[in-house]
From TrEMBL:
Record SUPFAM superfamilies: ACT-like, HD-domain/PDEase-like, Nucleotidyltransferase, TGS-like
CDD domains according to UniProt: ACT_RelA-SpoT, HDc, NT_Rel-Spo_like, TGS_RSH
InterPro entries (alphabetical): ACT-like_dom_sf, ACT_dom, Beta-grasp_dom_sf, HD/PDEase_dom, HD_domain, NT_sf, RelA/Spo_fam, RelA/SpoT_AH_RIS
Higher taxonomy: Bacteria, Pseudomonadati, Pseudomonadota, Gammaproteobacteria, Chromatiales
Pathway membership, UniProt: Purine metabolism; ppGpp biosynthesis; ppGpp from GDP: step 1/1
Protein name: guanosine-3',5'-bis(diphosphate) 3'-diphosphatase
HD domain boundaries: 62-161
Primary gene name: spoT
Keyword Transferase: yes
Enzyme Commission numbers on file: 3.1.7.2
Role noted for this protein: In eubacteria ppGpp (guanosine 3'-diphosphate 5'-diphosphate) is a mediator of the stringent response that coordinates a variety of cellular activities in response to changes in nutritional abundance.
Hydrolase keyword on record: yes
């Protein structure tokens, strides 16, 4: 009896799945050829057999999920290969089926798409975050070959979010956060607005269920109270357009809940302070009519200054085109109106998917398609420069920031950058080599520093220098993932070159103390020493010495073929000190605790990962190194040290108007720059200025201090260490 009941249930399940498959095929018959529809149905039969007996947490047979994913793509109008891959997207990952079997049954193209969406299941990762990052990295690699991979993944995530509420709360929150941070922004970046909106609202409901319910109820209440007013505005707008002889479709629209919540959070405002919850979309025949409609809207209601945006002339980075204006409607309610053509409306909702059928039809490449390719190319560049998969996924999150600024190159080309982007971000957007060599910029023909944030409409010209190189401080203010990844990559490369040079000098110094030189060493003994040290080549061991990972005197003894086993606690005193030129880069750092400058008596210490750290000989912090003499490095300043060095000085001054300007003028006249300033009131009319200046050495500093003492407002001046 029990077995017959189970058989009946299996038959019912199979019937339900077959019905869904038949419904999908009916949808596809509107735009696919019969043989292609048949191919999709065969994929359903193959997937149903592979997933036979598997169920989702909801209790439904597993095949219902791939069918739902395929239906979403069918509604977008994607091709047969994408639909087959959607139905089979979990077969490799969750069943014994191999990629080769899919290729044999449906072709290499479908198999490649399925493999691109499948997770890495054969590798053990140290953490869930690392697994997530590596799987995302794999997907991006596949996406670079075929953009349909991400479209399948978005449809997959959409159905998972629609059914997420059967999952445990902790897993639900993790998946919802990932959706809001990565997948919804990707949908926006590809212009697939319909998917993006639903992903955001589903993620909001799963991550913050109480906030979602409260906000949904407030919107429902407000919609009821304002329905009559909104209908009145819509009628007035339609009448105005009809009188002007303009045929248009006017649609009342409501901001989705996640958008309202984000606006409330970003502006620290309550729901009643968010006025543009409602708006209208006007769809017309052509671009010329869009601008005519804009004029009618402004004649009907007063536009708000600064709230008119022309995304037709300058499309968004994802290819989105529309005119936006915010109007002050009846009862001083703010109403946002979007004006676009029917084609623009289609692209705004479906993005790159709206143009997928152009792929094989020889049609023109759409703005959305070309922008998507540029974005994927940028992802690949970031992937190559990222140190690991977790760093890569963090860079992608930064890159998916939705707000943009639009600036011009000197040649008139438009560059899209995230809001808050700086000159350095612009330079790296032009080319990585331009970014590496930039030193300043002309913004609208005015000289500007590298950290200057850019604004829409500015013309930016980058100034470069052949000897310039990236500065680690740039990482504190750049906002684009491309700039951040490129700076880190260049710094690592430069650090390697600089470390090799410094390490060679340190080893040569240690060999000189033993009465030897690199040229005099026995080649066979050097080879044995390198093998014993476990490194490939002299440059590799020099780099480790330069980075402070190996002691130079110890390496020198190995290379010289010393017979006894060296003792790390012993330290050979070198006869010649390492000369500090100031151009060693990141492998020589100057301690912030004492801020040594050329001319100061200095000592050096080898520090793992930082190379040689230079301290003033009187620095209190060098006491901790007394028990580690093997880390001491004999150093001295080069006769002509390069660059500016930070130094801290304290000035006691009369607290009166203009004193800071007088001090700054003296410092500027003597070719120095104030890097930081802090003013503290001491006693009534007396204040203390704490300055950090850039100087070339002790002589330069002495000249500055002498001139400052000559100011009548300056009572006392001292150099501060720390």
């Amino acid at each position: 009896m029990a077995s017959s009941e189970a058989a009946v249930k299996r038959e019912a399940v199979g019937s339900d799945s077959a019905t869904r498959a038949a419904d999908l095929c009916s949808l596809l018959e509107d735009y696919l050829e019969p043989r292609q529809v048949q191919q999709v149905y065969r994929a359903y039969q193959f997937g149903a057999a592979a997933h036979d007996g598997q169920r989702r947490l909801s209790g439904e047979p597993y095949i219902t999920h791939p069918l739902a994913v395929a239906r979403t793509l069918g509604e977008m109008g994607l091709d047969a290969e994408s639909l087959c891959a959607a139905i089979l997207h979990d077969v490799i990952e969750d069943t014994p089926t191999a990629k080769a079997e899919i290729a044999e049954a449906f072709g290499a193209e479908v198999a490649q798409l399925v493999d691109g969406v499948s997770k890495l299941t054969q590798i053990n990762f140290r953490s869930k975050a690392e697994a997530q990052a590596e799987n995302f990295r794999k997907m991006v690699m596949a996406m670079s070959q075929d953009i349909r991979v991400i479209l399948i993944k978005l449809a997959d995530r959409l159905h998972n979010m629609r059914t997420i509420f059967v999952m445990p709360p902790s897993k639900r929150a993790r998946i919802a956060r990932e959706t809001l941070e990565i997948y919804a922004p990707i949908a926006q970046r590809l212009g697939i607005n319909s998917v993006r909106v639903e992903l955001e609202d589903l993620g909001f409901a799963a991550l913050y269920p109480m906030r979602y319910r409260v906000l949904k109820e407030r919107v429902r209440q407000q919609r009821g109270s304002r329905r009559e007013l909104l209908d009145s505005v819509r009628d007035e707008l339609c009448d105005s357009l009809a009188e002007g002889g303009i045929e248009a479709r006017v649609i009342a629209r409501q901001k989705h809940l996640w958008s309202i919540y984000q606006k409330m959070r970003n502006k620290q405002a309550g729901f009643d302070d968010i006025f543009d919850v409602y708006g209208f979309r006007v769809v017309v025949a052509d671009v010329d009519t869009c601008y005519r409609v804009l004029g009618h809207c402004h004649g009907l209601y007063k536009p708000l200054p600064g709230r008119i945006k022309d995304y037709i002339a300058i499309p968004k980075v994802n290819g989105y085109q529309s005119l936006h204006t915010t109007l002050l409607g009846p009862r001083r309610i703010q109403l946002e109106v979007q004006i676009r053509t029917a084609e623009m409306d289609r692209v705004a909702e479906a993005g790159i998917a709206a143009h997928w059928l152009y792929k094989d039809a020889g049609g023109p490449t759409s703005v959305a398609q070309s922008r998507a390719r540029e974005w994927v190319h940028g992802l690949m560049e970031m992937q190559e420069n990222a140190g690991n998969s977790i760093e890569f996924i963090e860079n992608v999150k930064i890159d998916l920031l939705p707000d943009e600024v639009y600036v011009f190159t000197p040649g008139g080309d438009i560059m899209e950058l995230p809001k808050g982007a700086t000159v350095v971000d612009f330079a790296y957007a032009v080319h990585s080599e331009i970014g590496d060599a930039c030193i300043a910029a002309n913004i609208d023909n005015r000289l500007a520093p590298l950290r200057t944030p850019l604004e829409t409409g500015q013309t930016v010209e980058i100034i470069t220098a052949p000897i310039a190189r990236p500065n680690p401080a740039w990482l504190d203010f750049v906002v684009t993932a491309k700039a951040r990844a490129a700076i880190r990559h260049s710094l690592k490369r430069l650090q390697g070159v600089e470390a090799v040079d410094l390490g060679r000098r340190l080893v040569e110094q240690a060999l000189n103390a033993m009465g030897l030189t690199l040229a005099s060493l026995d080649g066979d003994k050097v080879g044995e020493a390198l093998e014993s040290l476990g490194v490939k080549g002299l440059d590799a061991v020099f780099e480790e010495v330069g980075l402070g990972r190996r002691m130079p005197w110890l390496v020198a003894r190995y290379l010289a073929g010393a017979e006894e086993q060296p003792d790390e606690s012993r330290h050979a005193t070198a006869s010649g000190a390492l000369t500090i030129r100031g151009n060693e880069g990141a492998v020589v750092t100057f301690a912030r605790c004492c801020r040594p400058i050329p001319g100061d008596p200095i000592v050096g210490f080898a520090s793992a990962g930082r190379g040689v750290v230079i301290h003033h000989q009187t620095c209190n912090n060098i006491r901790e190194y007394r028990n580690h003499p093997e880390k001491w490095v004999d150093v001295q300043w080069d006769a002509v040290a390069e660059g500016d060095y930070p130094v801290a000085i304290d000035l006691e001054v009369m607290n009166r108007r203009g004193v800071l300007a007088s001090v700054a003028a003296v410092i500027s006249d003597l070719d120095s720059n104030i890097d930081a300033v802090e003013i503290e009131e001491k006693e009534g009319m007396i204040a203390t200025m704490k300055l950090v200046l850039g100087v070339r050495g002790r002589v330069h500093l002495a000249r500055i201090m002498r001139r400052l003492r000559g100011l009548s407002a300056v009572l006392r001046i001292t150099r501060r260490r720390g």
